[in-house]
Amino acid sequence: MIHEVDEGLRGLVAEEALAGTGVDVSFEAPTRDWAARRNAPTVNLFLYDIREDRSRHFQGRIAELDAAGRTVAWHDAPHFFALSYLVTAWTNRPTDEHRLLSALLAELVRYDELPTERMTGSLAALRLAVPMAVAAPPGEGRALADVWTALGGELKPSLDLVVVAPVATRRTVAAPPVLERTVRVSDTAGVLASHRTRTGRGNRRDGAPDGAARAGSDRRPGPDDRERRSATPDQPR
Fold first, then answer.
1. Where is this region: Disordered (predicted)?
2. What are the contacts of 23-30 at 24+ separation with CB within 8 A?
3. What band does 126 get if pLDDT is binned at 50, 70 and 90?
4. Which of 21, 132, 133, 179 has its CA 20 to 30 A from that of 218?
5. Percent of the chain scored above 70 by pLDDT?
């Protein structure tokens, strides 16, 4: 799931926020060594924290559909995880970095969820919303200054981007749809008295709709039949 979120964010940043700029997109840790190797303007999305969001867990199952809308599998209720990214811009001038951050912020605040066209793999199969939040106040235990200290670098302007994505659990393949039904009727001695196969949706093989009476079949008269008889004038004998 993490790599699918990475690819969705890469497309969102490179193809929309930074389209036509030639700026690179990286997911490496922005350490001093990485900064020294950088040779082009770069936007870095560093995944620094992963935590389960138990408030989003629910009971039940989710249907997985094919292109025709048929159920092909069932997924148990997924678990949701908050992925926190440290988003930074790296150029030779601070003013250029600020322009890149401004472009990123303007694009990312447009979305409350990762766009469906950016979802692949299990994210697309589950068909669940993937919430996003940018520049929100950091939660408990997520001080960005501590992240920079761990990276061994100096503090830089950054955006905190949080994506909450589902992780699929058990997947059960659905049984194929029922296309044919066979009805066998036996007498009390177990001797097969009749055999009929119904196919399709509500039609018998003889072409009559499901539930229609056969011509000449024995049938006890019902109340409607008796009412119709009593309403018919007596015929001369």
1. 190-237
2. 23/100, 29/151, 30/86, 30/88, 30/90, 30/151, 30/153
3. confident
4. 179
5. 71
